[in-house]
Amino acid sequence: AVEGIDVRRPFPPLRNDLVLRAARGERLERSPVWIMRQAGRYLPEYRSGRAAHDFFTVVRTPALACEVTLQPIRRYPQLDASIIFSDILVVPQALGMEVQMVPGKGPVFPEPLVTPDDLARLAVDVDVDEALAYVMDAITLTRHALDGAVPLYGFAGAPWTLMAYMIEGGGSKTLSKAKRWLYRYPDASHRLLQRITDLCVDFLVAQVKAGAQLLQVFDSWAGELSPAQYQQFALPYATQLAARVRAAVGSDVPLCYFPKGAASALPWLRSSAYDCLQVDWTVTPQDARVLAGPEKTLQGNADPCVLYADEPAIRAVTQTMLEGFGPASRYIANLGHGMYPDHDPEHLGYYLNAVHTLSTEMCRS
Ligand code: CP3
């Protein structure tokens, strides 16, 4: 189907703008819902289609990335948004670092940054339209292929989270290598964070030009920092990123930010250019609202492990979540983190149905 698409024609009209209306603070007839990692290994169609290709081959081949992005949209008509199939680690790759995706282990950088001298290894004056053209091409193709069914999120990693990966060289329990940089080499840390921020600004703006209708910034390691370190090394770059992207793309494209594990940072984000703040399950919806203030749209937040429960239990958790956030305005339902490979696709369907039926009832009364 993707082969016949003429990417030069105007984009098809959007038929479901619920997520956009939630981001703008308009009154809703039900809560919109989408799921982090809604494309991925828990879907049999992803596992069978992907078997022939490794992860970054899918990411770098627009027709494959488009196909995988559409898989959850085809399976779950309840979804109100799609998110382009890619990875936050394409930005370190654009800076010249090698990243491998090792099955069963996750991302691995064979040559992570060790000392500030290693900053000289990073590419300078990266042209994202060239280095990451494949992401923009995938976005344009997917926006057409969606045929207006739901809007398309683009995304990037937040500067602190990308810095952490570039130094750790992969996942880590303590982030001790990356945090060591913050204490030992604060100036070099700031220089690195600024270079990542500059590239991410260009990248997010390019994604909008290519067709992304919302943007999400993932700060997956925000919760590993002390509040003081977060304020020094994560917050300034995450907010600078939003302000510069906002200045470039205008107010029509909602900007979302996920400071995972760091709900205590929400008050500092009130004055940021972000429209939506994603929260995980470690904070109650009520506390998240108090912390974020009345002006932000909240996104989240059920523990993904809830999907291991049976249908009535999933429904009960969803009910409490919706009541806590208030389903009729400034809320987008999601999970508090991504889908896991051993999730049962049928149970995600229970969650999506519960959001639809319960929030529709609550918005009526
Ligand atoms: O559906 C979607 O959400 C869009 C695609 C998407 C992926 N990664 C695909 C992916 C998105 C938005 C991301 C973001 C991402 N990547 C984050 C931020 C969100 C978060 O999870 O906190 C992070 C930290 C990464 C880095 C990354 N990529 C890790 C840690 C892993 C390994 C995790 C795992 O499940 O093995 C990846 C790989 C990855 N990215 C997969 C997918 C579907 C699994 C790879 C596979 O198919 O084998």
UniProtKB/TrEMBL annotation:
Which top class of enzyme applies to this chain?
Answer: lyase
Location of this chain's protein in the cell:
Cytoplasm
Gene3D superfamilies noted in UniProt: 3.20.20.210
Listed pathway(s): Porphyrin-containing compound metabolism; protoporphyrin-IX biosynthesis; coproporphyrinogen-III from 5-aminolevulinate: step 4/4
Q: Name one GO biological process term.
A: protoporphyrinogen IX biosynthetic process
Classify the main location. cytoplasm
* Keywords, sorted A to Z: Cytoplasm, Decarboxylase, Lyase, Porphyrin biosynthesis
SUPFAM superfamilies with a match to the protein in the record: UROD/MetE-like
Q: Name one GO cellular component term.
A: cytosol
Q: What is its EC number?
A: 4.1.1.37
| InterPro entries reported for this sequence | UROD/MetE-like_sf, Uroporphyrinogen_deCO2ase_HemE, Uroporphyrinogen_deCOase
Could you state a single Gene Ontology molecular function term? uroporphyrinogen decarboxylase activity
Subunit: Homodimer.
Record's family?
Belongs to the uroporphyrinogen decarboxylase family.
Record's function text: Catalyzes the decarboxylation of four acetate groups of uroporphyrinogen-III to yield coproporphyrinogen-III.
Q: What is this protein called?
A: Uroporphyrinogen decarboxylase
